[in-house]
Amino acid sequence: MSEQKMVHLIIERQDTHNGKSYTEEFKVPLRPGMNVIAALMEIQRNPVNAKGEKVAPVSWESNCLEEICGACMMVINGKPRQACTALIEKLEQPIRLKPARTFPVLRDLVVDRSRMFEALKRVKAWVPIDGTYDLGPGPRMAERDRQWAYELSKCFTCGACVEACPNVNEKTSFIGPFAISQARLFNTHPTGSMHSHERIEALMGEGGIHECGNSQNCVQVCPKNIPLTTSIAAMNAATNRYALTNWLRK
């Protein structure tokens, strides 16, 4: 009878939001088609570390398990990515799991991504409508515009681009690549464009587009292959035009 293959995980843990981090090793049975979430669920079912000690189950977040919600983003073998699509058999072992430390760590692999949602509010990443009465069908978009806008709409706020960006850290207020791309998306929407000046002014403020260092790490790690650097370039041009137009009007 062949010996059961095992998955070796080295997980960076933290018991409280202000606690000290430490690493703990686990070994769980390998199953065909297993992903990182399945390995974490195995630890949750039987929380015993590689030394045979009973420990607290590892905390993490997940929801859809099909790369739609973005909740399970963590750093896997040094790269921010979704744990649900990280297949064990395609990862080098030992598999090292760490929380995305661009964000405050709440416990183990669970982080607080409020920073991202605050950034979306700053750039008004929505189409404002009153909602108290039927506005009827909205304006149509040309198919060519709809196709590339749809690519931008795939963002699910996972935070991988923010984790990979060297300009996002506790010392800066940079809103991040995702927010710039969402500003572009809603500025080109027929209805959303009515508030384009507010989004551009937000990008020109503190922590705005001028703090982008153009490292292009974001586009390398985006799980949806969103053209983030293209959006950054487009919005950089838009802010320059806006600033120049305002200057000429004086």
UniProtKB/TrEMBL annotation:
Cofactor(s) the protein requires to work: [2Fe-2S] cluster; [3Fe-4S] cluster; [4Fe-4S] cluster
Record keywords, A-Z: 2Fe-2S, 3Fe-4S, 4Fe-4S, Iron, Iron-sulfur, Metal-binding, Oxidoreductase, Tricarboxylic acid cycle
Annotated Pfam families: Fer2_3 (PF13085), Fer4_8 (PF13183)
Record protein name field: succinate dehydrogenase
Alphabetized PANTHER family for the sequence: SUCCINATE DEHYDROGENASE [UBIQUINONE] IRON-SULFUR SUBUNIT, MITOCHONDRIAL, SUCCINATE DEHYDROGENASE IRON-SULFUR PROTEIN
Family from the record: Belongs to the succinate dehydrogenase/fumarate reductase iron-sulfur protein family.
Taxonomic lineage of the native organism: Bacteria, Bacillati, Bacillota, Bacilli, Bacillales
This protein's record includes keyword Iron: yes
Enzyme class label: oxidoreductase
Enzyme Commission number, as recorded: 1.3.5.1
Domain 4Fe-4S ferredoxin-type: 146-174
Segments forming a coiled coil: none
Superkingdom of origin organism: Bacteria
